[in-house]
Amino acid sequence: MIATTTYDYSHLPRLTEGDEKFRARFLSWDLGDLTMTDVKEYLTCKDTVLVPVASLEQHGPHLPLYTDTVTAVHMSKRVAHMIGVIHTPVIWMGYSPQHMHAPGEGRGTITVRSTTLLAVMYDVGRSLIHHGFNRIIFVNGHGSNVKVVDPVLRKLRYETGALIGFVKPYMERYTGILKGLMENPEDETPGWHASELETSQDLAWDERLVRMERAAFTRAHIPAFLPKSFQKKDGMPDVEFEGYNYFTFPMDHHEFVESGVIGNPLRATKEKGEEAFRRLSEHVARGVLELMKVPVAVHTREFVDRVM
Q1: Which of 78, 223, 240, 281 could form a disulfide with 231 if both were Cys (CB 3.0 to 4.6 A apart)?
Q2: Number of other residues whose CB lies within 10 A of the CB of residue 18
Q3: What is the pLDDT averaged over residues 262-281?
Q4: Cα distances (angstroms) measured from residue 284 to each of 139, 171, 181
């Protein structure tokens, strides 16, 4: 589908004359909307591409399974329009084994094994490098992908010499550029699963998909298989013991929060979601602009091993 959303570019450097001509002629920065002729023309002046990667997983009773993908897609589209770079269609499947719950429960999560996700990311990256892209920036919307992606990022860099980046424009424990935006106090985990931030962003994306009448404040707790001397407050794999976070355990999501929601979504608003998208996308856009200045020498471009 051709992208027609209007974006505000006032906080960023103006697009070049070539960018403006590209926008006027092709209407979209989405690789899937373009022809091979368009891609070839783009590569005569730029070599950067954004690759959104996310997940399809349960986000409690009030948010769509698409929530993490909304983050990756919307951020990539905004950044692409702001600074005039191509983005690919989203890699919508992610590493989410902890969200499967018991068989037959109907949670809806689709997870892929770490090896599958890495293989897909590798093949996408190698295909793009094969065609002439030198800078591949994965825009991630799902926290658990971070646990497994390092090998593929290194493999792409070491094998080709391309600039490979991975950006995480969201908030879990790290507030970062969103400081002061969320109303929930820290103990209500505003950046966590289906809490204030994700609910606000989904409202900004498409409020028809958010069922606020089902939203409820839910706190994480220690899994039953651990002693009560341990504590847990959010969705990280580590747990607190004697006030410190040195222990990590493989836990399923339903073992520490039954509803799928970690935190308080009741203070979410569409306006907060739009402001979060604005702050994060402008930050990412500025970073990508800096990366576009770095000299890159790709030494191995052809994707030879592309069959098995």
Answers
A1: 240
A2: 14
A3: 97
A4: 9, 14, 18
Domain coordinates in residue numbering, the chain: 19-170+277-291
Question: Tell me: the pLDDT tens digits for 11-63?
Answer: 555 556 666 666 667 789 999 999 999 999 999 999 999 999 999 999 999 99
Task: Report the relative pairing of strands 230-231 and 238-241 from DSSP bridges.
Answer: antiparallel
CA angle (138 as vertex; 301, 308 as ends), nearest 5: 50
pTM value > 0.70: yes
- Find the helix or strand (DSSP H, E) in which 148 lies: none
Identify the three-state secondary structure at position 201.
Answer: helix
Q: How far apart are CA 156 and CA 242, in angstroms?
A: 41
What would be the CATH architecture of the domain defined by 19-170+277-291? 3-Layer(aba) Sandwich (3.40)
Orientation angle between helical segments 270-291 and 196-206, nearest 10 degrees? 90
Average pLDDT for residues 65-69, to the nearest whole number? 97
User: Which residue from 94, 90, 95 is spatially nearest to 72, judged by alpha carbons?
Assistant: 90
Cα–Cα dist 308/62, whole Å:
41
* Distance from C-alpha of 155 to C-alpha of 91, rounded to nearest angstrom: 18
* Separation in Å, CA 166 to CA 58, 142, 241: 24, 12, 32
pLDDT tens, position by position, 100-134: 999 999 999 999 999 999 999 999 999 999 999 99
Which tokens sit at 12? 């960023």
What are the pLDDT digits (tens) for 175-186? 999 999 999 999
Q: Which residues of 190-221 are buried (b: 16+ CB within 10 A; e: fewer)?
A: bbbbbbbbbbbbbbbbeeeebeeeebebbbbe
